[in-house]
Amino acid sequence: MSATPADFIEVYENTLSPDVCRALVQAFEASGAAVPGRVGGGVLPELKDSRDIQITGKPEWREAEVALNTAVYACLLRYLRTYRYALIAPVMLQTPGADGALRRITAGDFDTLDDRALGELVRAVLRPGAINLQRYTAGQGGYPYWHCELYPRSPDAETLHRHVLWTLYLNDGFAAGETEFLYQQRRIVPKTGSLLIAPAAFTHTHRGNRPEGGDKYIATSWILFQRAEQIFQS
Prior knowledge:
Layout: E1 10-12, H1 18-31, E2 35-36, E3 51-54, H2 62-82, H3 85-88, E4 94-96, E5 102-104, H4 115-125, E6 126-128, E7 132-136, E8 143-147, E9 162-169, E10 175-176, E11 179-181, E12 186-188, E13 195-199, E14 206-208, E15 211-212, E16 216-225, H5 228-231
Antiparallel strand pairs: 1-13, 2-3, 3-7, 4-5, 6-16, 7-16, 8-14, 9-13, 9-16, 10-15, 11-12, 11-14
């Protein structure tokens, strides 16, 4: 019997505690800083109807930013141990061998890399993106447009550096509101504290279905490649 093909969509439960998730939701509502959500073409509520706060780099959100990036990083290491070529296929990574000479890293090397060593490779190639906190209002909000996360937009091509997407669900207790993947025919049901990681390209075209009976809160971002100047500086 052949193995089930991988769909590269992973969900990690209990990534954040319910208390931390609840605190993020409360801080979102108390801030008064939410603005209409944007897509690549601007504010288009027929495509995405949400209220968003971009928290990265803002002093009042520093603790939240660190907590989210720390939680995502731990799961990213798990993701890359499962899908090793997500790290080593795009860039030919090398490491010093016992004799000091550089050698190419292979998928088999992951069996002997501890998290510290793997983390060094990850940080050499990848970086965290800006984090958005989002609320989708019950019976109204959602992201019904089928979309992917990889596209040419900004002059510095930052959106083309996106490698994987992530979404951390901050609450549940509502109907629908799934993250639905088109080609994989999967619907990820939001669960408080669960983290979704999936590729950013068109192969993982997806949408956010409208929540019913309660508002949906998420934190979401991407893991991006380092810029070429950083990766190839030596």
